[in-house]
Amino acid sequence: MGQSLYSKVFDRHCVERLPSGQHQIFIGLHLIHEVTSPQAFAMIREQGLSVPFPELTFATVDHIIPTAAMQRKRPLMDSQAEEMLQHIEKNTRDFGIRFFSPDAGEQGIVHVIGPERGLTQPGMTIACGDSHTSTHGAFGTLAFGIGTSQVADALATQTLAMSRLKVRRINFTGSLQRGVYAKDVALAYIHHLGVNGGVGFAYEFGGAIIDRMTMEERMTVCNMSIEGGARCGYVNPDQTTFDYLNGRECSPKGAAWESALADWKSIASDADAQYDDVVEIKGEEIEPYVTWGITPAQSVGVGQPLPIVNTFPVGDRLVVQEAYEYMSFAEGQSIIGTPIDVVFIGSCTNGRLSDLREAAKFLHGKKVAAGVRALVVPGSQSIATQAEAEGLDKIYSAAGFEWRNAGCSMCLAMNPDQLKGREICASTSNRNFKGRQGSPTGRTLLMSPAMAAVAAVEGRVTDVRQHPVFSAQ
Amino acid sequence: MSKFTLNEIRGSGIPLRGTDIDTDRIIPARFLKCVTFDGIGEHAFEDDIKGIAAKGGVHSFADARFRKAAVLVANRNFGCGSSREHAPQSLKRWGVSAIIAESYSEIFHGNCVSIAVPCFIASQEFCSELQNHIEANPSAELVLSVKDATVSFGGRTVKLSIDPGAQGQFLDGSWDARSGLLENLPAIRAVAARIPYLNQFGLSTPSKAL
Questions:
Q1: What pLDDT, on the 0 to 100 scale, is given for residue A316?
Q2: Please, which residues have CB within 8 angstroms of residue B103's CB and are 6 or more apart in sequence?
Q3: Cα–Cα distance between A161 and A351 in angstroms, integer?
Q4: How far is CA A49 from CA A142, A154, B158, in A?
Q5: Quick check: A16 and B174 CB within 8 A?
Q6: Which residue of A373, A391, A409, A452 has the smallest Cβ count within 10 Å?
Q7: What is the pLDDT of residue A203?
């Protein structure tokens, strides 16, 4: 019987079976940021522990950093943000950890810079004190979001105590309609399997649609595994993976590259691998999705009416009613035409170069609708530089978008980028929880970058499939 | 092993109804701007508390009847979303010593184990029944046994379930995983020496460079 990538990589990194029954798993790449690491460093200092593998941990600053150029001057105006930035600077210096700093032009969202530097490689175990660590699964890694105590475990031992997960293979068959993107694929599996359908599972994404995707698209799909309740999600490495990694800063070079390829091919799931569950989703049935509620599964194909409360199982109706009340939507209504106050293009879900390019296609010669505030936030300083070299910043600025510096920005609003009051935001991020974007009463509609760009121009939710950009192709 | 083992939790209860209550609601992101967890308990559910108050209601975490509670009774997929340990830290610092719910997000569950807050699992019907019981008897004591995975209240003892790994960790004191992990440092180095990507894919003697 064949093995899945999950089993092969898990076994390769297993140090010991712990008395509790869990496994001690070696972590090949540990990423840290300013929000979930300061208490972890305090824990290891308090216990007098060292960091035995400092060269396997990399740091950046993303959650709290302002994205407006003027606000990035040191000291940061927000004294709490400045304190957190100083802590990660000192902690990385004291323990010999590489810090991708804004001053060096290397800063970005932690899940964007790992792949772009070639740090993220097939077969690795990766941990980070951030639930969207699953993004790195796009490369055929087991990548886990962890809490602060576990960040301290990883720093002090380069291992974590973990239980073995079940593996669910999700096959995306056929092809996608024009105007349907990786983000819609992600929202589709969450819609089908629910926000807790993945509890106890690793998700293995495959099928013709995934096979044809670029690495950036696969990252979008894996990024939202946690929104489906799965602890991690991955795609088996293939030629697309290898082509992406070839020549990157931290990728293997020369003879090591050839050996790496052989190793990476060997860790992919075997053709006869057994899975605990297999699910098929037909690509043709995936519409552009928009969330209408307060969980990422509360979404609707843009052409469909919002669901009727009584069609849900009794135990689910409370959260559906709560969502309708919070969002001020009515069951049965269309999501098309919903007026938008703010548009946010960015985040570890959709802040990569291909996302910025795709959204820009819908902005040539257009203006953001009157009264709409629109932000575009590259996922890293490197992406910002590449985008500017292509002139994307000029397209966005001419359309009335604010072209910002790299950071998490309005995905979670731990920085000055926040909704106000009851504003509705068309957002390319990953969570539409109550209050997520900084206003306790603010409302988030998750969607693809193309859908967000069109919403910015029209001032309301619009079906991107109708756009002239597609008829011109 | 670590500081202490954990078998019994005693205290009054606090009901919190609703599925998919995420960690942004437990502790809004603006309270993550800190370098210690001190004082974070004061902000548990702050926005939900205000939101319900604005409509003339009272959130459980602002209800004086439950202020001394130690056992939180929630519903399905509790603690979904962000990996922020700030969420269980704020609950613990508020006073929560154990949780009973239909199910949990896994990262939240792991974080609770790390800070010695046992998470018990019960059916939807029982969670609802226990929530009703607590509302009717807010100062009544609940007694939770980790070893037996039971809750005793009002003269009854009801069987719950608990993740067997976590149960073992509470009973033998290894819930604080770090000391156990540290004991294996030689074995950790041995694994590092044979992982291909840490060793130039076999082309070099074991090296620590990526």
A1: 87
A2: A196, A199, B76, B77, B78, B121
A3: 32
A4: 26, 12, 43
A5: no
A6: A391
A7: 98
Placement of tokens 């593998």 in the chain = A53
CATH of region B8-175: 3.20.19.10
Q: For B195, which of A12, A35, A157 is closest by C-beta distance?
A: A12
What residue type is assigned to position A466 of the chain?
Answer: Q
Sign for the pseudo-dihedral over CA of A131, A184, A326, B77: negative
In A, minimum Cα distance to B112 occurs at A147
Q: Transcribe A292-332 into DSSP letters.
A: -SSSTT-EEETTSBPPPGGGS-GGGHHHHHHHHHHHT--TT
- CB B19 to CB A318 under 8 A? yes
Q: Which residues of chain A have pLDDT under 70?
A: 472-473
The terminus-to-terminus CA distance of chain B in angstroms comes to: 33
Beta strands, E only, A114-184: 125-128, 142-145, 159-162, 166-173
Give the ipTM. Answer: 0.94
Q: Measured between alpha carbons, how far is A116 from A248 in angstroms, rounded to an integer?
A: 7
Residues of chain B with Cβ-Cβ distance to A148 below 8 Å are 84-86, 111
Which helix (H) or strand (E) is B10 found in, with range?
strand B8-15
Q: What is the pLDDT of residues A107-138, one digit of tens each?
A: 999 999 999 999 999 999 999 999 999 999 99
Chain centre distance of CA A379: 10
Task: CATH number for A5-162: choose from 3.40.605.10, 3.40.50.300, 2.60.40.3500, 3.30.499.10.
Answer: 3.30.499.10
Domain ranges within chain B, ordered by starting residue: 8-175, 176-210
Reported CATH class of domain A166-247+262-285: alpha beta
Q: Tell me which residue has tokens 């006073």.
A: B95
Structure tokens at B115: 């800070």
pLDDT digits (tens, 9 = 90+) for A410-433: 999 999 999 999 999 999 999 999
Compute the nearest-CA separation of B182 from chain A (Å): 6
Q: Which of B25, B84, B197 sits opposite A121 (nearest CB)?
A: B197
Our CA-based measurement puts residue A196 at a distance from the nearest CA of chain B, in whole angstroms, of 6
pLDDT at A472: 66
User: Which residue from A42, A55, A87 is facing B209, i.e. has the nearest CB?
Assistant: A55
For residues A224 and A131, the answer to whether their CB atoms sit within 8 Å is no
**Claim: this prediction has a pTM higher than 0.95:** yes
Rounded Cα distance, A141 and A163, in Å: 17
Question: Which residues in chain B have their CB less than 8 angstroms from residue A412's CB?
Answer: 24, 29, 82
| Residue A310 tokens, joined | 């009584």
B33, A81 Cβ separation under 8 angstroms = yes
- Span A290-471 CATH architecture: 2-Layer Sandwich (3.30)
State the 10-residue block means of pLDDT for chain B, 210 residues long. 82 97 96 95 97 96 98 97 96 98 96 97 97 98 98 97 93 90 96 96 60
Minimum-distance CB partner of B201 among A35, A153, A259: A259
